[in-house]
Write a structure and sequence with these properties.
The complex is a heterodimer of chains A (804) and B (420). In chain A, 35% of the residues lie in helices and 17% in strands. By secondary structure, chain A is an alpha/beta fold. In chain A, helix 1 runs antiparallel to helix 2 and helix 5 packs across helix 20. Chain A is globular, with a radius of gyration of 26 Å. Chain B is mostly helical and 420 residues long. Chain B is 51% helix and 2% strand. In chain B, the strands form 2 sheets. Chain B has a two-stranded antiparallel sheet with strand order 1-2. The chains are: A alpha/beta (804), B mainly alpha (420).
Chain lengths: 804, 420
């Protein structure tokens, strides 16, 4: 090999990086340099830029890709994009490594050998792959059982989800299994209290006091950069007005470490603490009386038509959440509870945030309800600095589906793994219940499964169960970029483009209050591999199936779909294409006054300007639009008295168990690998936890006194065992966690994911025993009891090698 | 087609096509009509406010100036400073602050913006149109006014209010203020007698009271149906309506027309279109009486007609009364312009201020602006004070500069002036 000057410079950079990041980083650089399409040597050619949307998490940040010649060399935040305003988090910065990952799936592949190994897959053509999948689908409809198709979908807010939903409905199956966990419990709380199915959007930048009941606000919120911008404004963006942040939880996470005050509580008692604060507000009259009387129901006792008394929220708080009782449950002194309650009520705009714990961990519904009660008492529902509800995005609806008896018959069948019950009426189905039903052989078999934007064999509360379920389904098709755990078990892998290789139209990320549409454009003239988007594949399959399924999609393909949806934006007569902060303020002020100044005079002009700016949005949020944000029967926020009364028993029970022998497992999601993705990229593996300097492996945080009691030392390998299985982790003895708890990060321990993820660390989700939140009915990621002991063995070989 | 005219027409266009299946045809016809229509002299020189908005950011104005709170705080807030309701008021204010701005920019090490092509016209159009729109009203103040003005006696909002008049909580939240004003106006023949029957005075609106009242009404409405109509009016249609509705039979604009009613060019009629609507309402009792005397019926408005009329009135105020070249010549001399630019403006120490071609006044102001840095130095050396202009001075001066003259320029050397 001829060594040229630019190669030499590249290696010098690699060596410097090796010094900076330690030996593992040097090895990574060597690995990357040895790959055929290394992005580390300066390319030559003309410079260009393209606007796109980061898909490394659901956050929906606008990005600006710098391209030289045929290679993307840098990603930056799009300064006009309202979600991130030019900023980009570490995951977004690492997205180029995903683009040029040497283990990307090069083209469609069919499994010809045993499951679990990439070597068992054989490269095929798209015609062959789509022919086989299409024939299978045709067979299902010919047999009159379209319901035997299931689609398990996660991922971003792009068009693929909408295409998949439409495809499934046109095909005739009710089995759309969402895998998105983020905000699931918070959404339920909103549904119970306000009657709207929406993730709460917190207006951080306008509030003065935040009480976090175990949230991972600065780690793994749905839109991390948007949240951090709000955080910046909350702390430093207002002259002479710095917000106070109090974090309640058993683990001093990044969020806790950034707080003004960390109140360490026993695991699972964050909501009890919140209700204790609420009880003080109620007892001392420190609540917003006007708001309660105008916009809430159920605070005071009620009488039904027969004259029977129904206890109100005040009664529940007085009877069950007295100071002594809450102090005993949480381990927090009475004085602290009183002080926090008075601070909360004294601040001009106070906000309680429920346990939004990460992309995978939804948090407890009980605790989300507790946060909502506090927000109602302080009168900040749908107020500046309070809890907002995202505005609807006016995309043009797709045309009505054609009439089809086969599809109508299939859609009438119940979903596989339906979990809704009288107690948990809001949950339709989830991947765990779906896997249970498939393994157990439910009411009818699933013959074909599409897995889109998800890795359920790794990132669910029952990964092993899902792996077993896959083996019972005759055809499993995985849509993926890398050979992840699910792909390796599938029958077909249909490779997906990186977000810089495709068109897409993303809607508002969860937790962002404004209506917005982000337009993603390809940064590369051609994808690096033989890939097709989910939408292209499904539209192709639909057309292959013939009418009436094919009539569900226009022949214009993906771009035609996007243009159609954007027409709705044009016809909405609101908002503006993304612009500067001045443009934002101007549009907001005008709309607030009842005016709208269109920046475009035709749908084509809107499309052109959206391409130039990154998209469209409506910065005006109409506070106090009660008809939109409260849709309960009473038309008012309804205090969830009965649900909280029912949930109180379970929370108390968890508290007592933490004091006995086993430790309570507390899972958390560090931002680099939040949501179960990120471990595939070495840049992210090197910065898993800057505080403890942990990288390339799974560690377990234990309080010093707990560690002493079980005979575990710092930096010692330990075995963590639950009733289902055990894992090996690297013990870190630290006061960052309360006694009786072991905190372990999620996101490592993949079997697939490429060379940098496979075999590195352990997957603690395997420790979960299948418990479900007693109120929500969704899997409970908290409260698993584990035993911890020094391990006779060391960590996994790959992790050991990297760590060394 | 000039930008500002298109700006308002765009409102109308976007509004009126709505769900019209013949949208493309409508748009096409509109484009043709825009091309063929000869713009009125009043409209011919207006810039494009949308481009002006972009220039306000890209030229760095926003770094020092805010518009109703959005932007820098070094200079005055241009959306809240004293209302500028003609081109000459804006241009003179901009020129007068030039010296102070130069000093501030030096202090902050900011490069002074230069303008090319139609840029200054666009920027001035943006600044002019700031006055068209209202700041958001305060619903809390509006709630108080709703009771104080006795609206609550007849109209209900939510669970409160009388039932004599129609319910007002059916007004969609996004309704533009002018649409509410139009409904109020049309309601006058019924409402005014009813108010008097109750023994109340017909409500009068001062300042931004009507804006606050409308904000309160809108805040109580449904959001879902709010996005339907937001037209800001079509000035061409407004001009026709001004004639056909009989307004021109009583009202003059800058002394042009009949003077039975107030001259609508009067400075005390300035302000946003909603405030103008408030004054129009205040005028209702006297006007209806006068019209009855003249044998006319009080006009009513439908669809976007009131918005169109106000768009016409607003555009008509852009040029104000215009300037007088003779007075401009006097201003030219009084402000010592002639000491550098020659007695008739064909150059001297300074360059000629006249153009070979007919030139819009916006272009003249743009040349003046771009020339200002050199003026500072020269005038400083000569000990001449920076000339400041009242709006009428500016109008007259520009009329003088743009007027044709028969006086031929003498060569500077023949005038004994030093060569430049």
């Amino acid at each position: 090999m001829k060594i040229e000057r630019r190669h030499f410079i590249g290696m010098a950079v690699g060596a410097t990086a090796g010094v900076a990041f330690g030996t593992p980083a040097a090895r990574i650089v060597t690995d990357v340099l040895s790959s055929a399409d290394s992005p580390y040597f300066p390319p030559k050619g003309r410079e260009g830029f393209a606007l796109s949307v980061c898909a490394m998490c659901p956050g929906g940040c606008g990005v600006r890709a710098r391209r030289i010649g045929g290679r993307v060399v840098k990603l930056e935040g799009n300064p006009l994009h309202p979600v991130n305003a030019g900023r980009l988090c570490l995951k977004g910065q690492a997205a180029l490594q995903a683009l040029y990952h040497p283990d990307r799936i090069p083209g469609p592949m069919r499994r010809v050998g045993e499951r679990g190994k990439i070597e068992s897959f054989k490269r095929v053509t798209w015609d062959e792959a789509l022919g086989a999948v299409g024939a299978q689908l045709k067979g299902l409809r010919e047999k009159g059982h379209p319901e035997s198709l299931a689609i398990l979908a996660g991922g971003t807010t792009g068009v693929d989800r909408r295409t998949a939903r439409r495809f499934l409905r046109a095909f005739g199956s009710p089995n759309e299994i969402p895998i998105d966990r983020w905000g699931a419990a918070a959404t339920l709380a909103m549904q119970m209290g306000q009657g709207v199915q929406a993730v709460p959007a917190y207006d951080l930048q306008s509030c003065d006091y935040v009480l976090s009941l175990g949230s991972a606000l600065l780690e793994a919120t749905s839109s991390p950069v948007h949240t951090m911008r709000g955080w910046g404004a909350f702390r430093q963006g207002r002259t002479g007005r710095r917000g106070k942040f109090v974090h309640v939880g058993p683990h001093l996470s990044i969020t806790g470490a950034s707080a003004d005050e960390w109140i360490s509580v026993r695991p699972g008692t964050e909501g009890i603490f919140g209700l204790g604060v609420a009880a003080v507000l109620a007892a001392e009259g420190l609540y917003h009386r006007d708001f309660l009387s105008e916009h809430t129901a159920g605070f005071e006792d009620t009488l039904d038509e027969a004259g029977r008394r129904g206890p109100g929220m005040r009664d529940l708080l007085e009877s069950r959440y007295g100071l002594e009782s809450v102090s005993g449950a949480t381990g927090v002194s009475v004085h602290v509870i009183l002080r926090i309650a008075r601070e909360f009520s004294a601040a001009p705009r106070s906000l309680a945030i429920g346990p939004l714990r990460g992309f995978l961990i939804p948090g407890s519904l009980h605790d989300h309800l507790a946060a909502q009660v506090l927000n109602a008492l302080s009168g900040n529902l749908d107020q500046p600095g309070g809890v907002l509800v995202s505005e609807d995005v006016p995309l043009k609806p797709w045309p009505d589906l054609p009439s089809d008896p086969i599809a109508e018959s299939g859609l009438k069948t119940p979903r596989v793994g339906e979990t809704g019950s009288a107690d948990t009426p809001f949950i339709a189905s989830d991947p765990e219940s779906f896997a249970d039903a498939v393994v157990a052989g439910g009411s009818y078999p699933i013959e074909t499964l599409f897995v889109i934007g998800a890795d359920p064999a790794f990132a669910t509360a029952a990964p092993e169960k899902f792996a077993a379920a896959i083996q019972k389904i005759p055809m499993v098709v995985s849509f993926a970029q890398l050979p992840d755990d699910t792909s390796l078990l599938a029958d077909w892998i249909l490779p997906q483009p990186h977000f810089l290789e495709r068109w897409d139209l993303h809607t508002t990320p969860p937790g962002v209050p404004y209506a917005l549409v982000s337009l993603a454009q390809p940064a590369l003239a051609q994808p690096l591999h033989d890939v097709r988007t989910v939408s292209d594949v499904l539209i192709g399959l639909a057309h292959g199936l013939g009418a009436p399924v094919s009539d569900a999609f226009s022949p214009d393909g993906l771009q035609g779909l996007l243009r159609l949806e954007m027409d709705g934006i044009y016809q909405a007569h609101r908002g503006a294409v993304m612009g500067t902060q001045f443009d934002e303020a101007w549009v907001r002020m005008m709309e607030n006054a009842g005016w709208w100044v269109p920046g475009y005079s035709s749908a084509d002009e809107l499309w052109t300007k959206a391409k130039e700016s990154g998209g469209w949005w409506d910065p005006f949020y109409d506070h106090g639009d009660w008809n939109r944000v409260v849709r309960t029967r009473s038309g008012q926020y309804e205090f969830p008295v009965r649900a909280l009364a029912a949930g109180a028993a379970s929370r108390q029970a968890r508290k007592s168990s933490a004091e006995t022998g086993p430790l309570t497992l507390h899972l958390f999601e560090p931002l680099p690998i939040a949501g179960g993705s990120g471990a595939e990229l070495p840049f992210l593996q090197t910065m898993l936890d800057p505080g403890l300097e942990e990288r390339w492996g799974t560690w377990a945080e234990i309080h010093p006194e707990t560690a002493a009691a079980i005979g575990v030392g710092d930096r010692q390998w330990v075995k963590v065992a639950s009733s289902t299985t055990s894992i090996i982790a690297y013990a870190r003895v630290t006061p960052r966690v309360v006694q009786g708890v072991i905190a372990i990060p999620l996101g490592l321990g993949k079997r697939g994911g490429g060379r940098w993820a496979a075999g590195v660390g352990e997957n603690p989700l395997r420790l979960l025993a299948g418990a479900r939140d007693p109120l929500a009915g969704i899997p409970d990621f908290d409260g698993t009891e584990v035993t911890v002991m020094p391990a006779g063995t060391r960590g996994t070989a790959a992790g050991e090698e990297r760590r060394a | 087609m000039n930008g500002a005219f298109g700006f308002l027409l765009r409102f109308a266009c976007v509004e009126r096509e709505r769900s019209d299946s013949h949208f493309k045809i409508t748009l096409g016809l509109l484009a043709v009509s825009l091309t063929l229509m000869r713009p009125s002299p009043l409209l011919a020189e207006l810039g494009d406010p949308m481009k002006g908005q972009s220039l306000f950011v890209s030229k760095g104005c926003v770094e020092c100036h805010a518009v109703r709170g959005a932007g820098g705080r070094v200079g005055p807030d241009l959306g809240r400073a004293a209302v500028k309701s003609s081109f000459y008021e804006i241009a003179s204010a901009m020129w007068n602050h030039s010296l102070g701005m130069e000093e501030k920019m030096r202090e902050f090490r900011v490069v002074r913006p230069r303008f090319e092509g139609d840029e200054l016209a666009d920027l001035l159009a943006f600044l002019y149109f700031l006055n068209y729109f209202d700041e958001p009203g305060d619903p809390q103040v509006g709630k108080v006014l709703f009771a104080e003005k006795h609206c609550i006696q007849c109209h209900s909002l939510g669970k409160q209010g009388g039932s004599t008049g129609p319910r007002l909580d059916t007004i969609p939240r996004g309704t533009p203020p002018l649409r509410i004003a139009q409904d109020l106006w049309n309601h006058g023949p019924v409402m005014v007698p009813a108010i008097r029957q109750y023994g109340f005075d017909v409500p009068q609106f001062k300042g931004s009271e009507i804006v606050d009242l409308f904000a309160y009404l809108r805040s109580q409405g449904q959001r879902q149906a709010a996005k339907d109509f937001r037209s800001a009016g079509d000035p061409q249609s407004g001009k026709r309506l001004f004639e056909s509705k009989g307004c021109a039979r009583c009202h003059a604009i800058f002394d042009k027309g009949v003077d039975i009613g107030p001259d609508l060019g009067k400075s005390d009629l300035r302000g946003s279109v909603t405030q103008l609507a408030g004054r129009m309402w205040n005028h209702w009792p006297a006007m209806s009486q006068a019209m009855t005397t003249l044998g006319m019926s009080v006009p009513t408005f439908k669809n976007e007609e009131l918005a169109d009329v106000f768009a016409y009135l607003f555009i008509a105020r852009y040029d104000g009364r215009g300037g007088n070249p003779e007075r401009g010549k006097e201003v030219y001399a009084r402000k010592a312009c002639s000491s550098c630019h020659g007695p008739m403006g064909y150059g001297g120490v300074g360059p000629s201020i006249r153009s070979d071609q007919p030139e819009p006044k916006e272009r003249v102001v743009q040349r003046m602006w771009n020339h200002a840095p050199k003026m500072y130095k020269t005038m400083g050396l000569k000990g001449i004070d920076w000339p400041r202009f009242e709006p009428q001075d500016m109008a007259d001066l520009l009329a003088f500069i743009t007027a044709e003259t028969t006086v031929k320029p003498a060569h500077p050397a023949q005038q004994g002036a030093p060569s430049r």
